[in-house]
Design goal:
39% of the residues lie in helices and 16% in strands. Helix 6 links the parallel strand 7 and strand 8. The chain has 16 helices and 14 strands. It is globular, with a radius of gyration of 22 Å. Helix 7 packs across helix 14 and helix 13 crosses helix 15. The strands form two sheets. It has an eight-stranded mixed sheet with strand order 3-4-2-1-5-6-7-8, sandwiched between helices. With 385 residues, it is α/β, with parallel strands linked by helices.
């Protein structure tokens, strides 16, 4: 049996969005008859091979609940450890599927593998504005920029998460295909019941860092007339209210935000799935001109559509290929709090029946346009050529 070896620092099986994306790619390889092996920093026992959903997973994370020193030890020379372990135990694999952060290390050791069929999954092109001091002291920033600017056709092939990234790599003469953040649809069932016809429930899920304009989203709610704001409930999952306290806005504005918002902190992935479906809308806003917004593809949007929740968002990256205003989403025509407020007015004005239709259409979009099976042709192209 042919084998594909995934090399990454990700926390398999569902520790973050990129690990979920790789697990979805694994479905393609399983369907094509491959044995699939992941070497990463997952939650399985240290160096023990465990099979999860048909994938053999090996974690090189020695300490599962580490103290400060153990955290350092977990990540010390981790790129070399992952690549070396792959060479020692799975060096005869037919395909190497790697994250860009391992590019430098893998490039040095690639001749130790039997195959030269190397595929990198590229999901980011960072902007300096995302980092303190424009990324001067950030190794993650520098690794990302190095990969995106220094990779050569002889180094491998690329699966890009957006057409912006696809065009970037194509201009470097790389073999590349574009595949957005896809889903692995297992259930076509959708509960479109709306719990409270008097309220509109909104959810933001994740950590905004310096990517998502969450503060502008929340300020947009405060600009609503009181009669409309009284109809809104906003849950923020992934961060607690300490995040709000750190924002550079007035104390009065923070207090007003807390009248309609609840900050839930981090929740287990399984619980997020169960609660997500009870919301009327999800929330996302990103700056149109930032390179990271053009190059990425928001995980939040694919997941929101998968759970049948229409997003209130502006159309950055390739979102315009999948979202249709008032059909499966509410479009924000801009990237400011005023533009978001105007979109909220429209979202709140929708009837129960109209919201149900958008929820059905959101799920339909996920199944018909964003399921991994819709991209098997692109996967065949990059794997076999």
């Amino acid at each position: 049996m042919k084998r594909v070896l995934f090399l990454t620092k990700r926390r398999y099986p569902d520790g973050d969005a990129s690990s979920k994306r790789d697990c979805i790619f694994a479905k393609y390889f399983i369907d094509r008859g491959y044995e699939v092996v992941f070497i990463g920093m997952g939650r399985t026992p240290y160096k023990k091979v465990e099979s999860i959903d048909g994938v053999s997973m090996v974690s090189l994370k020695r300490y599962k609940n580490p103290n400060f020193i153990q955290k350092i030890l977990n990540h010390l020379f981790v790129e070399k450890k992952i690549v070396n372990y792959g060479i020692q135990h799975y060096g005869d694999s037919d395909i190497i599927f790697s994250e860009p952060n391992l590019f430098k290390t893998l490039r040095k050791r690639i001749k130790s593998f039997k195959t030269q069929n190397i595929i990198y999954s590229s999901v980011e092109f960072y902007s300096p504005s995302e980092y303190p001091l424009n990324g001067l002291f950030s190794s993650g920033y520098h690794k990302n920029i190095f990969f995106n600017t220094k990779i050569k056709p002889s180094d491998g092939k690329v699966i890009a998460i957006s057409n912006y990234l696809k065009n970037h790599f194509a201009n470097m003469n790389m073999k590349v295909v574009a595949i957005p953040f896809v889903i692995n649809n297992k259930d076509n069932k959708l509960d479109v019941s709306i719990a409270n016809s008097e309220k509109r429930r909104f959810i933001y899920c994740g950590n905004p860092r310096k990517k998502d304009l969450l503060c502008d989203i929340l300020i947009a709610f405060t600009k609503l007339p009181d009669a409309l704001l009284s109809k809104c409930e906003v849950d923020v999952i992934g961060i607690d209210n300490k995040w709000l306290l750190k924002q550079k806005i007035s104390k009065d504005l923070k207090n007003k935000i807390l009248t309609f918002s609840s900050f839930k902190g981090s929740l287990p992935f399984s619980r997020i799935i169960e609660t997500y479906k009870s919301y009327d809308y999800s929330l996302l806003l990103r700056p149109f001109e930032a390179r990271y917004a053009k190059a990425g593809f928001p995980t939040k949007i694919s997941e929101s559509l998968e759970y049948g929740v229409p997003p209130v968002t502006n159309f950055t990256s390739d979102l315009g290929l999948y979202l249709k205003n008032e059909i499966n989403c509410i479009e924000v025509h801009g990237d400011t709090s005023d533009a978001f407020k105007d979109a909220l007015v429209l979202a709140i004005s929708k009837t129960i029946e109209e919201i149900r239709d958008m929820k059905i259409n959101a799920k339909k979009t996920a199944v018909e346009k964003l399921d991994i099976k819709n991209f098997y042709k692109e996967m065949d192209e990059i794997v076999n050529n």
